[in-house]
Amino acid sequence: MDTKRHHILNAAVEVFSRFGYRKTSMQDVADAAGMSRAALYLYFKNKDDLFRVLMERHHATATAEAEAGFAQTAPFERRLSAGLKAFVLSAMAPVQSSPYGQELFEANNTLAEDLNVATAARLQQLTQATIADAIEAGEISLGKVAVTPTLLAELILCAIDGIKKGSDGLDQIEERIDALVRIVASATGSAG
């Protein structure tokens, strides 16, 4: 991504966080980026396009952070926790820090539904692979819980969705993810 486009997207994050999706105008973003509105239209065709590109970058960042967390050289419990928290906290931070968080979340669901689906599928793959790798390495066993790596990953991610919706702030989200991972680790024999 070129430097100017990156600069515009950084400015857009600030503006959307401050004013919400509905109240933000292309002029607001242009002003924040230090450029004319006409120049902004050379990079983005409209506000929906700008927001969608911003969400593409946001999803890519959250996914990359999750990949790095899951890829750590650490015991299963720490890898699982690191990957999940990296993704969720990266994804939730802009929503949690804005008084327009719910509005931004809804705009994301409307304008970037396909990105949400693709990102969720990637997180499912990463979680499942982390579980499968831990089984292969002898770190965990699913024998006592009688589930497949696929089902366990699905259950973990369903619980994560509930944690995101039912928590008050990032600290509580992080605390609850840690608790969930401790439960999974204990049930699979890796806690200790």
Shape: elongated
The separation of the N and C termini measures 45 Å
| Helix and strand pattern | HHHHHHHHH
Number of DSSP-assigned strands: 0
Gyration radius from CA atoms, angstroms: 19 Å
Describe this structure in words.
Helix 8 packs antiparallel against helix 9 (170-188). It is built from nine helices and no strands. The model has no long low-confidence stretch (mean pLDDT 93). The chain has one domain (47-188): Orthogonal Bundle (Tetracycline Repressor, domain 2), CATH 1.10.357. The protein is mostly helical.
Task: Please provide a brief summary of the model.
The protein is mainly α and 192 residues long.
Secondary structure blueprint with pairings:
Layout lengths: L2 H21 L2 H8 L3 H4 L6 H24 L5 H22 L3 H11 L1 H24 L12 H18 L3 H19 L4
Helix pairs in contact: 1-2, 1-4, 1-6, 4-5, 4-7, 5-6, 5-7, 5-9, 7-8, 8-9
Keywords summarizing the entry:
192 residues, 9 helices, 0% strand, mainly alpha, Tetracycline Repressor, domain 2
